[in-house]
Each structure stands twice: as C-alpha cells, then as structure tokens.
Amino acid sequence: MSDPQPLSTPAPARPLRRGVVLVVCCMSLFLVTMDVTIVNVALPVIGRDLHAPLDGLQWCVDAYTLVVASFLMLSGATADRVGRRRVFQSGLVLFTLGSFLCSLATSNLALVLCRVLQACGGSMLNPVAMSIIANTYLDARERARAIGLWGATTGVSLATGPVLGGVLTQSVGWRAVFWVNVPVGLLALLLTARFVPESRAARARRPDPVAQLLVVLGLAALTATLIEAPRLGWHSAPIGAGFMLAAAAIFGLIAHERRRSEPLIDLRFFRSIPLSAATLVAVLTFTAYSGSLFLLTLHLQEVRGLAPSTAGLCLLPSALALLVCSPLSGRWVAAGHTRAVLVSAGIAIAASGALMLGLDAHTPLARVLLALGLFGIGMGLVNAPITNTAVSGMPRAQAGLAAGLTATSRQVGATLGVALIGALAGRPPGVGRLMAGAHVAGAQHATWWLVIGCGLTIAAIGLAVTGARARRSVERVAALIEEPAARAAIHTPRS
C-alpha cells in the first residue's frame, strides 16, 4: 500500500512557514559548500600544528569532498524512501558532531577521520534540501524563486569561506573554522524540528548497493592513487594497482547499471548532450577552482609569508567577483544567453590561469589579485548555466535527479583538483616542508596550465552544446525514459 497522502503530497504551507523552511535549507547548503573552501586558508597552520605533510593536507580537503561526492545520490534516494525531514535531521546531527570533533583533533589522521564523519552528514543535506523546497513550494513561480535563492547561496558560501577562514585562523586559531559550524548546525536542527514538514516520494527507487559500492571504490581509488603517487613513485606496484582498481570499478559500474531496471545512475541520461555537457563543465570548473585555491593559499602563506588573515583578504577579489556575477549570470541564462555566458566564463578562467603563469615570490601582488578577480568572474558566470543546462537537458520529471548529478560532479571536480596538485607537484623536499623553492615553482607552472586547459575546454563546450543537435538529444532521451514509464503506469494496479 502506498504512503499516506500528506507525506507524498504535502498541503500548502503558510508563507511564514515556507520562508523558514527556505532559510533552513539555505543554511544547510551554506555550511556544506563553505566547508569545501573555509579550511583551505587554515591548511598551512594545520600542517605546522599537526606536523602534516602536503599529502596529509590534501587528505584533509579530499576526505570531505570525496565522501560528499560518493553519497549524494544515495542520500537523495534514501530520503525519498524513509522521509526527507528524517534524513535531513540526521545529516545536520552528523555534520555538526563531525565539525565539533574536527576542532578537537590532535593528529592529521584524527582530523581526516572526523572530516569523513562531517562529510557523511553533509551528503545528506544538499540533495534533500532541494527535495524539501520542491515539496514546500507547490506553486511553480514561487518554487522557481525559492530555488534561485537556494542556488545563489552556493556563490555566497564559496565567496565567504576563504575570507572567513583567514580571519578566524588569524584571530582565534584553525580550530575556529570548525567551531563556526556548530551553533549554525544546532539552530538549523531546532528549526527543522519545528517548521520542516515530513514528506516522502509516492514511489521511491529501489536501493542499488552494488552501484553505490562501485562509486565509492572508484572515486576513492583514483583519489588515493593521485595523492600518494608522488610519495610512492608513479611506477610503483601500489600506484599501478590503484589505477587498475579505479578503472575496474568504473567499467564494473557501467556494466552493472546497464542491467538494472532502476539504476542508481541511469546511463541513458548521458545521451542528453546538455546534461553530459553540464556534468563535464561542473567537473572542469571545480577541478580548476579547488586545485588553484589549494595551491594559492599555500603560496600566499608559505612562499610570500603572509598571515592567514592577509591571505584570506587577498582572495577577496575572487569572492566579490563571484558574488556580483552569480546573479547576473542567472538573469542572462534566463534571457536565453547560455552560450555567451559559458564561453565568457571559460575565457575568464583561462585568462586567470595565463596571468598566473610564472608565479613566484616576486610576482607583483596586483597581478595575482587581477587573476583572482578574473577567476571569480568565471566562477560566478558558470554556476547558473551548469544547473540550467543540466535541468533543461532532462525531462521535467527528472529535473531533481539532473540537479543531483551536477552537484555530484562539482564535488568530484573539487576532489580531483586537490588530488592533482600533488601529482603535478611531485614530492616536496624535506620532511614537514609544504612548499619550497623549485618544488612550488614546478607545481604552480603545471597547475596554471591545467587551469588554462579547463577554461578553454569550458568555452569550447559552450560553443558546441547549445544548438539544435543538443535540443534533439533531449527529445530522444525524453522518449526513452517517459514512454516506458507511461507503459508501466498503465499496467500497475492502484493501491
């Protein structure tokens, strides 16, 4: 028998209640997204305090993004099945507890393990928050405005993280970048219990544990191999085995999902050119962003000798540009200028990388700030077309899943960006030294070429995937997915 009607189709909530629900969902998105960036500025201080090498600091960042990326899809499906508010509350508890335990860590390993717990909670928040908003705002126009505000929170959180992290690390200490999550998480938990209604999907997808295991295994193997390769050697047996395991997990996932009637990731979706393009753009954008942010925070403090608060303020041009360009991008995309926005974003990111080529301790700071401003413009412009292209590239009934795929792609990109830095840098000379001399020069040179390549590829994708051929691919995917669903509905007896 189906779930009670109030859980699958909630009654319209009053405006005040809807507003509080939206605020709670935005708070959760702010916490999870900000935590990707706020830790970066504190990394040099964490490294010195906990005696962590470069690969240890990479794991501090990647343990979080890896777990979030791995479990986003599972969390959304579980919430549809057992109750969205229940999963959302569980996520808030785990995220808040994990943040508090991170602040108590006395070793790099303990910090990484606490980041894993924190990320388990974080993976339950963003996809479930989107579902809660969709089930709270039943009017299409109001729902569009609410989702727009929820999406704008991404830009605010990405912009706030590095600056706030620098100020807190300098004034209080690195542990404060985790303390800040605790009161916000507790407040969100109380408001959720009071105002957020429970809801479930009328028909939730069946679990797919094999696919989930393969996703975790593939991402973890690839990330670990890239991070540890400079230490163990690219030709060593463990690194070769790591690459083989990652490849086997990916091919195994593809083979398994093709046989499933209700897969975790329906591979037919990727026949939609806009969806595939949005997924690739998300990976490229966040690979460039997380990699360059990780490297720049180390450069500003370890090479230039700046204090954490000053290093955080140096990232302000990027933050301000991102805040200004994010809403403008949304308006231009809504007006039908997706191609121009994507191309402009790619060019801005590539130009930022070009300005950073040859970066060293003697490079004028004004040039660094200009490059950061350009990167912020690119990041601000690209977020709206990623989500819009993905959602418009799927049948309307699958819009939430399309948004979940792009959210996962962002986290995958963030994970790969940090992992690639170590692979490009090689092993730093000297125990406990994070960045030094020729080592940082080589790492930066390769990193900025990577950023340039990502930017130019984004611009090329913008030119290639916004035409008639892309629109026809969406129609073909809709026919593949909706016709079998309609036939199943005809032959499925009502409860």
Order of helices and strands: HHHHHHHHHHHHHHHHHHH
CATH homologous superfamily (4th level) name of the largest domain = MFS general substrate transporter like domains
Global outline: globular
Mean pLDDT: 81
Can you tell me the CATH class of the largest domain? Answer: Mainly Alpha
Strand portion, in percent? under 5%
Q: Structurally, how many domains make up the residues?
A: 3
**Helical element count?**
19
Radius of gyration: 22 Å
Structural class: mainly alpha
Polypeptide structure, described:
There is one protein chain. Helix 6 packs antiparallel against helix 17. 55% of the residues are buried. The protein has three domains: 183 residues, MFS general substrate transporter like domains (Growth Hormone, Chain: A); 55 residues; 230 residues, MFS general substrate transporter like domains (Growth Hormone, Chain: A, Up-down Bundle), CATH 1.20.1250.20. With 495 residues, the protein is mostly helical. The chain is globular, with a radius of gyration of 22 Å. The protein contains 19 helices and no strands.
Short description:
By secondary structure, the chain is an all-alpha fold.
Name the features.
single chain; 495 residues; mainly alpha; Growth Hormone, Chain: A; 3 domains; 0% strand; globular; disordered C terminus
Could you give the topology of this structure?
Layout: H1 5-8, H2 15-50, H3 54-82, H4 84-103, H5 108-122, H6 126-136, H7 140-171, H8 176-179, H9 181-195, H10 209-232, H11 237-259, H12 273-303, H13 308-314, H14 316-334, H15 338-356, H16 365-392, H17 399-425, H18 437-464, H19 468-491
Helix pairs in contact: 2-3, 2-6, 2-7, 2-9, 2-12, 3-4, 3-5, 3-6, 3-10, 3-17, 4-5, 4-6, 4-9, 6-7, 6-17, 7-13, 7-14, 10-11, 10-17, 12-16, 12-17, 12-18, 14-16, 15-16, 15-18, 16-17, 17-18
